[in-house]
Amino acid sequence: MSSIGILGAGRVGGGLASALATAGHQITLGHRQPPQQTAADESGGAAAIRHADQRTTAATTEIVINATPGDTALERLSTLHTELAGKILIDVSNATRHSPDGLPSDLCYPGSSLAERLQRALPATRVVKTLNTMLFPVMTAPAELSTPPTGYLSGDDSGAKATAAGLLADLGWKPEWIEDLGDITTARATEALVLLVPHVLRRHGLRPFAVSLAR
Question: Of 77, 175, 182, 192, which has the fewest Cβ atoms less than 10 A away?
Fold first, then answer.
């Protein structure tokens, strides 16, 4: 099992931390500010989740997941280039501007993507984009949807994508639900799909869904 650091302790990061800890991985949950207590948190079921600040999290784990807000992630993670060097960075966020109701309204990087910008800013890090085309509960419980969801992978390193696919399997994703789109430039396509999300949410509320391929 792997040592995984998750940057971002909100609903996305916390959900991934709990599910991956339950699957047997060693998890460090990275907070923007140093947590008040560093004692193990049993929210991961039988496995404990360690808490730390984001720099310590990036420095002390083998694989790092970015679950921080996408509109500020590039600036935040660029300062961690030393800690992230030589590691796999799995980016699950979307870089968007928001409308008055708080839902995505536009892309921060039209004609590009957050994942591409991260790979350019962190050349010694292997960036993989995935899990950014669904409402957050689907990330850790894909089988609960009535139709199979699709988890897309984008990245320049095939080994890093294989590692990411293995973690998806630990979260309940079947191999046939995972679609490898190709290199990191393909992330601009999946990041653009987030523009569908606000329209779906306004009509149906926070019912779990994913933007998936039908075959």
Answer: 175
Q: Which domains are present in the chain?
A: 3-204 (3.40.50.720)
State the DSSP string of 194-208. Answer: GGGHHHHHHHH-S--
pLDDT class of 101 with cuts at 50, 70, 90: confident
The model's pTM is 0.93
CA–CA distance, 196 with 193 (Å, rounded to integer):
6
Q: Among 35, 36, 15, which residue's Cα sits nearest to residue 27? A: 15
Closest CA to 188 of 69, 127, 123, 107: 107
The C-alpha angle 34, 38, 44, rounded to 5 degrees, equals 110
| Cβ-contact 54, 31 below 8 angstroms | yes
Q: Strand, helix or coil at 54? A: helix
